[in-house]
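Reviewer comment 2.1 asked that we show a complete input and output for one of the modelled complexes. We chose the WT7 case, as it is the one discussed in the main text.
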Amino acid sequence: MTSTADGTGLDAVGTDIVGTDDVSLERELDQLLAVERFDPPPDFVSRWYRPADAAAAAADPPAFWAEQARTLLDWDTPFTTVLDDSNPPFYRWFTDGRLNVSANCLDRHVAAGRGDKVAIHWVGEEGERRRVTYSDLLADTQRLANGLKELGVGKGDVVGIFLPMIPEVAVAMLACARIGAVHNVVFGGFAPSAVRERMEVSDAKVLITVDGARRKGRTAPVKEAVDAELGDLKALEHIVVVRSTGIAAPIREGRDVWYHELLERADPVAPPEPLDAEHPLFILYSSGSTAKPKGILHTTGGYLTGATYTHRLVFDLDADSDVYWCSADVGWITGHSYIVYGPLSNGATSVMFEGAPDYPDRDIWWKIIEEFKVTIFYTAPTAIRTCIKWGPQYPGRHDLSSLRLLGTVGEPINPKAWLWYHKVIGGGRCPIVDTWWQTETGAILISPLPGVTSTKPGSATTPLPGIFPALLSEDGQPVTEGTGVLVITKPWPSMLRTLYRDDERYVQTYFSRFGRDVYVVGDAARLDADGYFWIIGRIDDVINVSGHRLSTAEVESAIVSHELVAEAAVVAQSDEQTGQAIVAFVTLTGNQSGDDATIAELREHVATRIGKLARPKRVIWADDLPKTRSGKIMRRLLRDIAEGRELGDVTTLRDPDVVAALAGKVAQAD
Ligand code: WT7
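Response of the prediction step:
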C-alpha cells in the first residue's frame, strides 16, 4: 500500500483500487500523492467570496446572516428580529419575517423574464430528454398546489413524497412549499415498509407516488407495493399517482387520484402563501443510534438562506452560464438542498438524471456531461471509487472539457480517489470542493471555496463564513491540533429546529454532551497545523454505506424480526468500494447453524424491511455475542473481529470465551 503525504490514514480505504492497466496514470497518481496541497488555479477567481465577508461573519454572525437572507431572498414581510436565542437549543431565525420558498425558487425568476430558461434538463433511463423551464415548473407547481388543497391539504399538514428522479418530484416539493404543507420525502430506494413507518410517525395526510420505477431496464410496480404496505394507514387520506412508466397501477376510487388528472382540473393560479420564516418546510427522516429514524425538521427562512448562500458560494455559481449537475437522489438532504432548493432559488440550470451510472453502459454520466456541457459536477466518493474500478476508458470516451468545478459529499474521500477525480474527470484543471455537512445542518458547513482555498486531498478544509466548528476532547477541552469530537459552537440559519414531535430527543441527541449551546455533530475529526478539518467518521452507532446513513439498531431490528433469528448485532467494516460495509453477527433460534441459503434469505428480509442498501455484506453465525456484565453487546469487539484486528480489552465481558470462539470462527471462514 502506498502511503499518503498527509498521513491521515484515510487512504486505508481503497488506496489500491485504481484498477486500470494504465500504468502511466497509476504512476502519475502515485506521484501526486506526494503533493500535500493544491493551490487554486490562478485564473479561477471566486465570483462571490469577499474577504470582508469572512471578517464580517466573524465579528457579528447574526448580522452577517441577516445580510445574506436580505440580499439573496425575496421577503413578503421583511424581518426585524434576526436570531432569537432566548431558549437554546431551540433557535429561531428571522422570526417576524414572512416569505414563500416556491416564490423564491420560481416566481421571482419568471417575473424577471427568465421563464424560458431551463431549470431542469431531465434525462430518462431509456434516453428520453425533457427540457423543463422555470415557467413550466411554476405552472405545474401552481396546479398541484391547488390540487393538494382540493384533497384537503392545508398549512402544516404533512405530505409524503415517494418518487423516483423525475421532474415531478421537484414540483411536488415546491407545491407543498407553496401552500405551507410540510413535505416528507422518502428515498426511492427504500422499501415500502420504510415508507409506511415514515408516513405513520408523521401522520401524513397525502402521499405522492408513482405507478412504477425503472431501474436498469426493469420496471418495479411501486403503486402496487405501496398499496400492499400502506393501504390501511388511518391518517393517509389520499394517494396521488404520477404516471411515469405506464405499468399497471391499482387506483382505489375515492382515495387515489392520478397526478395528471388532478393537475388538469386544477385552477392554474395559486398565489404563494406568505409563511412565517419559522414555518416548517420539511421533515426528512435520517438514521440515528436507535432503530427509530429521526424526523429532522427544517423551516422556511433559515433553511432557504443556507441552501441559497452555500450553493452559490461553494459552487461559484454563474446562473447565466453554468450547467450544474448533482448526481445524488432527491430523497436525501443533498437532493433537497443541492438539486431542488439551492439551484432553483439561485435560478440555475441543472441536469436531473433518472438512471443508474452503469446503464445502458458505464459511460452514461460522462456522456451526459458532454451532451449538456455540464460545468459543475457534484457526486459522492463512493461513486468515484466505482468509476475508478471500472477504469478511465469510460470517461475517456467523452469530451469533459466543459467541467470547471467538481464537488464531493457524504463521506471522507481517500486521497487517491480525490486525485483520480482531479486528474481523470477534472483534467487537472478543476478545483475540487470536498463538502462536509449533514441532514441536520441543512447546508454545507465546511468546504474549500473554489479560487480561494488551497485544497489538501482528503480534507474538507475550513468552515464557511458564519460557521463556527471546533474540536473537543472527550472531557470537553478544546483541541487546537489533533483529533477530537466535532462540534458547532454557534447556531446557523439552516440548522435543524428539532426532531419532529420529539423535542426531548433533539436536546438529548445533539445538545446534551457539552451543554445546551454546543451542537454535537456525531463525527470525529482531526485539525491540522493549518487549521484544516479532516473528518474521520461517525462516533455513534451509525454506519455510512456509500454515503448513506444507516443505524446499526435499525438493521439489527430488521434481522431480528426474521423468525429464524434469536439475536443479532451489526457493525461496520471498512470497505474499498462503499467506505463502510455492514457485517451482521447472527444467532439463530435453537442454536441452529445457518447456510448460504439462510444468508440469502436474511439479506432479502432486510431488503424488504428497510431497502437494498441495508443488506449486510457479511453474515457471521454466532453461538453467542460478547456482552458486558450488564448485558450490553460490545460492538467495539465485534468490529475488531470483523476486521481481523487484535482484540482490545475483554476483561469487562460476562464470558470472555465468546469472543475467542467467534474470532476463531471468522478466521477459519476467511
Ligand atoms: C454524515 C452525514 C450531507 C449530505 C450527505 C450525507 C458524513 C458527509 C462528508 C465529507 C467526510 C462526510 C459525516 C456526516 N459526511 N459529508 N465531505 N467528508 N464525511 O448526509 O446522511 O446526514 O450524513 O455523512 O459522517 O456526519 P447524512
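Confidence is low (pLDDT under 50) at residues 1-19. We note this here for comparison with the apo prediction described in Section 3.2.
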